[in-house]
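Minutes, methods subgroup
Present: GH (chair), OT, SY

1. OT presented the first of two proteins processed in the latest run. Sequence and structure tokens recorded below as shown on screen.
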Amino acid sequence: MTEQENCTSTPRPDVLRDWLICAMVDLSLSAKTISTATGGENAVGRFLSSPGRGIGLSRACDVEAYVRGCAAKENKSLPEISGEAVAKYAAMLEPKASGLRQIQLSEILRCGGCE
């Protein structure tokens, strides 16, 4: 596998951030709960609150695995982490969100998944 092929399968931080926001709305999870479950002190909260901030690959894998595990416990299936899939996910969730999360979902929809 070439280096370029490797990079294209790893989501950009902004797409992962949008996917995580959607999953948190869908599963009623908090950043603190996810951070605690994945061994960090509010790492997820810092990642979500700073659009320019990245997240380590191992932390991102742990977060994705934990969130997908939570979804499985609720018999839900989460979409892939891609701009197009995240935009569709946000559109489905926007009506059930409120406050800050609704604003964040609206922003995801405005930029069309930003990919």
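2. SY then presented the second protein from the same run.
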Amino acid sequence: MKLSNSKPELILHPGFPKCATSTIQRLFVVDNHALGRLLNVSFIGRDFKPDNGYPEVSMLMYDVEKAHDFISTVSYPAGKYFLSNEAVFSHPETISLLAERFQIRKCIFTIRFPPFQALSSFRFSGWVNNSLEDFLLNKNVGPQGAFERLLRKVDIVRPFINGDVSLCPIERLDIPLEERFLKQVFGMVPEILSGHSFSEKVVVNESISEAFANVLGSELRTQSVAVPPKSRQRLIKIAQQYSLPEDLKKLRMPETAEKFCQTYRPMASRYISLLRESSLPEDQLEAIESRVLSDFDVLQTTAIATSREIESLRIHAQQVIRTYAGM
């Protein structure tokens, strides 16, 4: 694709759901965008303006015409820009519009083992529209088609990139994700990253437990509760902030017991082969594979909700729905 040399440069981070996009965005917002200044890059934030807070995710999802108008009209002086936005793929014209305004020099995807990413996505928001049983069989959103969806999105963006397309795994390793991401994208890790604002761990967009998610979705459908797109995030936030009793917080469902692990555990090697294409060090790849297999062990040893516990969760789910309906 021929690109004009007069365009400003863009590094694009089109995040996948539940793949640390919010963590990366926070790095570039805290302390009045201090990190971006050290890296000589402007972070595209609110109203798609440079260094203007957090990016417009909801607008790009639910008011795409307005979002595209901002992208088309905002002034981007010559220089380097960084856009981290998990809604980039919500409309097919967004990437081509970005390519009209910028030379997209680099694109990096933060990813995790795709079947786990899909399962985490269910726990975050997939329960609004799917039962866990249906989700696990749905190739469009569930773990069955997770690898293929990842590869399709990489292929969609590749023609618009005048440079590298790479993958950055978010699995927990000895080297923090933030450092690995900055090293991979910008080739350096500024000392400021060890400062309090950056080193303080802030949990954002945390998923609820698998069992609670499944029961919540079941109650929505039993009560025929409508969840319009613009109200979806509000319901998710209510569920996230709801305080469950300690003994109900980490339960899973029988659907992810032996069958899920038997089906997807052998795919860890496929994930490593995919990451190897991004030229990650072999010792890091070994650590990632070990982490993925360890996560399967954790999943298999997590307690399965009993019938009595599911009924208790149902009572709490009904309270979440009452709160949502009353707001």
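Chair's summary of item 2: Residues 210-326 form one domain.
Next meeting: continue with the remaining queue.
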